[in-house]
Amino acid sequence: MKRTGWLVAGVVVAAGCAASGPVPRGPVAASKPVEAARPVLMRPAEIDARMRAAWKEKGIEPAERVDDAGFFRRVNLDLTGRVPAAEAVEAFLADKSADKRQKAIDALLASPDYAEHFTNYWDRVLMGRNVRKNVDHAEFRRWLHEQLEKNVGYDVWVRELVSATGLTSAPRMAEQPVNGAANWYLRYMDNPPDLAGTTSRLFLGVRIQCAQCHDHKTEKWTMSDFQGFTASFLSTRARLFYADDKDKKGLRAYDVEDLDRPRRAAKRMDIAEYKSAAPRALDGTDLLSGGSKPRTALAEWITRKDNPWFARAIVNRMWGVMLGRGFSEPVDDLRESNPPAMKDLLDTLASDFVASGYDLKHLLRLMANTEAYQLTARPRGQRGDGAAWSYYHMEQLGPDELLDSLIRATGLPREKAERQFSFLFDVDEEDDHDDEFDGTITQALWLMNGKVMQRSIQIAPGSALAQVLSKPGGDEGKIRALYMRTVSRPPTDEETTHWVTFLKGQPVRQGYEDLLWVLLNSSEFLFNH
Question: Which InterPro entries did the record assign (predicted)?
Answer without folding.
Answer: DUF1549, DUF1553
